[in-house]
């Protein structure tokens, strides 16, 4: 085993056989994984990525699930992680979508070329029948040189045969030209499978063996592999009818603007009902106010007041207004966790049903103007849940340029759900005109900032090139599992930042710095934004928790200190104002410090400038 | 001609894809120089959707402008 194998960090007993699940996205790998492993599963996140690997046990072997990929290479984080798990597998269970053999068999043949023993689960056989396809499975198995087992895993069909076949997994028929190329480099690597990736110019694998990229065989190898697969497919598939099923039609409707836009609005409305109403009000009412706000608060105060005095610095730090044992966990678990879980639930539903890539295609045109492509809709949707979480997700974007633009837009113009609730509560009673004024202002800033960044930033953003999987009914168990894993990852990644943020705020407050900043801003607030001096304090509170700031405005409005137009101006300022302290820290963690400073200072300036200009016009 | 000029429902053959990294990603999805596909959908000013049997791929308009094709019947 190679000494620089990154998967060595995972907790795998020495010497046990590793069965790795591999396949394209949305082919049912996770269902196989659950069926094989049962309850005891360990999920670990790969450092610096949003990618998780599940590890479980099957008989004496260790089973590992990998992210869905179209091939073993390193075009993105998912691929890099999947590559390292696949490279060092003892047996691979390759799950193949029988309806999409052209796409899926490329990975299959690549694994076979690597020389790793494989069993193929030819999944979704029910759809093969429904779509009028006939596949000569015996012939496919003979051509590939490995066992091909037809399965419909959602109905557990074929699972018993998979169990039996795993013990008989064998090395398939590699493409002979590729095999002979591999023989020429195999002495330069640790395991034979790496030889293929050296030839295919995988930069990480080349680096690990201190090899220069002078092989340049990727294009040639991909081409003969493609031709090889296409030739096999031509001889094994017979199409008996071409009638489009309802799901195919639904998939089209989700793309054509005339039907796609109403469908999108319906989905957004349902999302709002689920998250904005049910989770944000009913669930959070219980978790934040009762469970965390009363039971937890009383519990922790009951213990801590025995040891520390609330009046001194240590007391403030631990259990004060912004204490790391009081505010931080109440905010994180009481308010954010339910919202974040709700958003991940919706996102997983969209992903597993095949709807998400269609939204990406639908909005691609709008986002290219901002220097992003359709894929950036994922962090933007998540941003309405929690900007901190969304900023972490910008990792999936294709270039540094896109990651910067998306981070800037998220920090600047996307109000998170915590804030959105208070904003809607404040603005709704003021009538449609005020709501429109607010929405249009934020939208203009969002569009203008993206457009300008796209114009002035060097380089080019990546283009959309995305597989549109068939529309399928998601499996609830998988959706819930994904929601759980992602929410847990959020708590692990963002939790420490919220604690640190709370500590910094306490420090700033205790030292009087908050007051100094507030006083320094007051003249601008009064003179340029035409708002009462007290508003400055609420802006500062917005750094601590975005909803605190908005809630502060609520109090001022109730006291009659703000008229409706002033409410709009201050809401614009607080929406655009620097994101909460946890989001700021996640920006610093994800981006370089220069970029982070630009984002931080930039949103600060844009916020006051926009609100000021708006104030000068309307007030 | 380039891919952005294709009409919906038209069959086409891919002649040239400019960027090596795009070529490598596209070939795995069945889009490569010489591949014969159908334009199954075209979003207004947006992505072009290419289809091969049950497989569908969305290609951003800017990328489509860089892909050389010829229409076939």
Automatic annotation (TrEMBL), chain A:
Membrane topology listed for this record: Multi-pass membrane protein
Keyword Cell membrane: yes
Cell compartments where the protein resides: Cell membrane
Matching Pfam families: FeoB_C, FeoB_N, Gate
Residue stretches spanning the membrane: 258-283, 295-315, 322-347, 376-397, 404-428, 434-453, 490-510, 567-588, 597-618
Superkingdom assignment: Bacteria
Keyword entries, A-Z: Cell membrane, GTP-binding, Ion transport, Iron, Iron transport, Magnesium, Membrane, Metal-binding, Nucleotide-binding, Transmembrane, Transmembrane helix, Transport
InterPro entries: Fe2_transport_prot-B (IPR003373), Fe2_transport_prot_B_C (IPR011640), FeoB_GTPase (IPR050860), G_FEOB_dom (IPR030389), Gate_dom (IPR011642), GTP-bd (IPR006073), P-loop_NTPase (IPR027417)
PANTHER family tied to this protein: FE(2+) TRANSPORTER FEOB, FERROUS IRON TRANSPORT PROTEIN B
Annotated ranges, domain FeoB-type G: 16-172
Protein name according to UniProt: Ferrous iron transport protein B
Family: Belongs to the TRAFAC class TrmE-Era-EngA-EngB-Septin-like GTPase superfamily. FeoB GTPase (TC 9.A.8) family.
Gene3D superfamilies given in the database record: P-loop containing nucleotide triphosphate hydrolases
UniProt-annotated binding residues for Mg(2+): 34-35, 37-38
GO cellular component: plasma membrane
NCBIfam families (alphabetical): feoB (TIGR00437)
Automatic annotation (TrEMBL), chain B:
Residues of the Ferrous iron transporter FeoA-like domain: 1-71
Key words of the record: Iron
GO molecular function: transition metal ion binding
InterPro entries: Fe-transptr_FeoA-like, FeoA_core_dom, Transcriptional_repressor_C
Entry superkingdom: Bacteria
Membrane-crossing segments per the record: none
SMART domains, per the entry: FeoA
UniProt xrefs under Pfam families: FeoA
Name of the protein in question: Ferrous iron transport protein A
Protein's organism: Marinisporobacter balticus
